[in-house]
Amino acid sequence: MYGKNTMTNYYKNLLLLFTIIVTLSSCGNRNNYEAYFGGEITSPKSDHIYFCRDNKVIDTITLDENNRFFIKFDSLTPGMYSFKHEPYYQYVYFDKNDSLMVNIDTRHFDESIVFSGKGNEKNNFMMELYLVNEKDRNSCFSVFDYDFDKFTKCIDSTYQKRIAYYEEEKSRLEWSSGFDFYVKARLDFNYFSKKEYYPYAHALKTGKKINDLIPNDYYDYRDEIEFNNPKLTNYTPFVRYFTAMLNNMAISKHEPYNIPEDTLEENITKLNLADSIFINEDVKNQVLNTLAFNYLLEDKNIVNHEAFLECFNELSTDDDDSNEIVRIGQAVDELSEGNKLPEIELVDSYDNPIDINNGINEKTVIFFWTSCSKSRLKVIDKKIDLLKQQYGEIDFIAINVDEDEEWKKTMKEYYLENACHLRASNFKALKDKWAFTKINRTIVLNPDGTIKKGFANLMDSNFSRHLR
């Protein structure tokens, strides 16, 4: 039922020792909340993983020289956690005294994950369900072409099959109510999201509006959703659902299903809808942050951010300087044309610190890359060659956002001859000071080092207009 990975002898021995520890511990009266978490990472991207709850890091676990990690928690509250090996992350659920090992290969991160130890079966089931839902989510776009009856029959049939399998495993494994809350939510929100997407996806794909054909009880499931439950706020299936729901509601408030997505007016409507639906202050602030971040991912939206952020600031009560949206707004103001770039920590391949504002004497293009998208480098290289032919005086600076070891390793294989190579050694500063929200961001500087265009895309077919 679950995938299988070949483990090294060391990993097998460690798992055996791990099992012995758990077995001996269970012989006593375990009224405490001890828990263990360990594993091995093949092709790691950095030398650590983050152990998190509600998107907050509670432990940083360093990999040893064999890319293995292990940690004992003297007390771990039962619940849903996540582990991050950036840029990847996945969920793991701990009941009282669970002791879990996980084997990971970053080349196929999600598909490779297999849990062992006490609590492994429920977590392997959750991973299996995640992979099925992801495959379904990535391949189900065609169902939005269907007429209403065919669409409903299709998604209802899939949902009922998964519910039956879920009930079977729930009965077999007798998992806790705490775990059941999350696994059932994953099932439900995958199904509900399809229902929310359908009206506007169908209209956008086929040009046919079906809102008049939707029965009055189509959205009744919304009445059963715990919108203000803090346990759901940062849970990805719920985040995807409320994003789809608010898209649907916002579009239908305008001329139904007949306007392009991600307009300023539509996104301000989403903020106001969220303000009316989410009552719990902390939950509402998190939802508003999610909506704002999604909107500001697009460079064109960041540039025209004033009206959006004005509405956001009126509705959000989270005015802490650590709020990412507040920081983005402040950073965008600093990146106005004519300003110098705020200083961040950059290093060259010899680990020498580099001041980006010193030494600029030609028009300069700054772009970003990561080893997670190596194929993109080949496309960039061709684009740079083309631009060099047209604008020979242009300098190019390639800034990598990986860890040092990964960066240097990748450069040996994919080195761009036409660019100066630097690395952002403090990713948080890059996000905070340069409003860095996506990898295809590009910055254009004037010959005097001032900003000509703070938000551009090197691969845009019209990018060359920024160089004239």
TrEMBL record:
SUPFAM superfamilies: Thioredoxin-like (SSF52833). Pfam families: Thioredoxin_8. This is Thioredoxin-like domain-containing protein. It comes from the Bacteria. Residues 335-468 form the Thioredoxin domain. The lineage of its organism: Bacteria, Pseudomonadati, Bacteroidota, Flavobacteriia, Flavobacteriales. It comes from Flavobacterium rhizophilum.
